[in-house]
UniProtKB/TrEMBL annotation:
The keyword ATP-binding applies. Keywords: ATP-binding, Nucleotide-binding. InterPro entries: ATPase_AAA-3 (IPR011703), CbbQ/NirQ/NorQ/GpvN (IPR050764), ChlI/MoxR_AAA_lid (IPR041628), P-loop_NTPase (IPR027417). Residues 230-301 form the ChlI/MoxR AAA lid domain. GO terms for molecular function: ATP binding; ATP hydrolysis activity. SUPFAM superfamilies: P-loop containing nucleoside triphosphate hydrolases. It comes from the Bacteria. Transmembrane segments: none annotated. Belongs to the MoxR family. This is MoxR-like ATPase.
Length: 317
């Protein structure tokens, strides 16, 4: 079976549990294939935790949920060194980060010191304790959740932390028919309990290597750079997207092309992922917020105003 069909199998499997949210599921799975991390911002009760639990089951991966509270310490996450009197040596005691899929639940409820303990793991796939470096298992992805409504007792994520998430997504409420179907599906028991794996960790690692081989033309690369660099020039933006945003948008576009069964990237692939990859990297001026301008509004404006590359036969490359 071709690997892009494996992605469809994973998405279909998760959709048995998360009803009517295929686009969100696709973006979460694509982020995993990109070796990326996802920030899921939404109100309680829409299935954020269930979504990530279903993902880990679908790929038969190890899974840890970290409930971020004010008393969680960095060592709880990364691990620590403990002296062993028998061996007369310090031994590494692994923390909850040593897993394939990490759910950082309500990440903004823990102080910045603890939040920052994830930075090295998210960027380099390792943790360093007392000068010793420990590699994390592969695949490895962090899926962090936060509630956009509650601000009391929370610590907003700094730009450096936000920039490490390849995408920011929102699950959203189901419509009436979807909610009725949820009630029927969950009537006797949660379908999550019966969910079986449809792929393996090895499949994910293999796909992570294969998407790197997806062809992307100079014209498409130039298009990506234009879309990202224009965020830095908008008058309503105080901080635009960084070059890391360009790299993430390229990687996500290649993964989307791969998922769609192509070995080359088109402008449509870039446009599909532009908002979820870039929107959370933009900091608006206070005056823009007062006028209820959103990052998404600015990005759609940039998409309309940026010339789309045409006339390149990518398939022949």
């Amino acid at each position: 079976m071709e690997k892009q069909n494996v992605i469809s199998l994973i998405v279909d499997n998760i959709e048995k549990v998360i009803i009517g949210k295929r686009k969100v599921i696709e973006r979460v799975v694509i982020s995993l294939i990109c070796e990326g991390h996802v920030l899921i911002e939404d109100v309680p009760g829409v299935g954020k935790t269930t979504l990530i639990s279903a993902l880990s089951k679908s790929i038969s991966a190890s899974y840890n949920r970290i409930q971020f509270t004010p008393d969680v310490m960095p060592s709880d996450i990364t691990g620590f060194s403990m002296y062993n009197p028998k061996s007369q040596e310090f031994e590494y005691k692994s923390g909850s980060i040593m897993s394939n899929i990490i759910l950082a639940d309500e990440i903004n409820r823990t102080p910045p010191k603890t939040q920052s303990s994830l930075l090295e793991a998210m960027e380099e796939g390792q943790v360093t304790i007392d000068g010793n470096t420990y590699k994390l298992p592969r695949p490895f992805s962090v899926f962090a959740t936060q509630n956009p409504i509650e601000y009391l007792g929370t610590y907003p994520l700094p730009e450096a932390q936000l920039d490490r998430f390849i995408m920011k997504v929102s699950v959203g409420y189901p419509d009436q028919k979807e909610e009725e179907f949820i009630l029927r599906t969950y009537n006797l028991e949660s379908p999550l309990a019966q969910l079986k794996g449809v792929a393996t960790k090895e499949d994910i690692v293999e796909m992570q290597q294969e998407i790197k081989l997806i062809y992307i033309s100079d014209e498409i690369r130039r298009y990506i750079v234009q879309l990202v660099s224009k965020t830095r020039k908008e008058q309503d933006v105080v901080l635009g997207a960084s070059p890391r945003g360009s790299l993430f948008l390229m990687s996500a576009s290649k993964a989307w092309a791969y998922y769609k069964g192509r070995h080359f990237v088109t402008p449509d692939d870039v446009q599909e992922l532009y908002l979820p990859v870039i929107a959370h990297r933009i900091t608006l001026r206070q005056e823009a917020k007062l006028k209820e301008i959103t990052p998404e509004y600015i990005l759609r404006k940039i998409l309309r105003e940026t010339e789309v590359p045409t006339g390149v036969n990518n398939e022949e490359k």
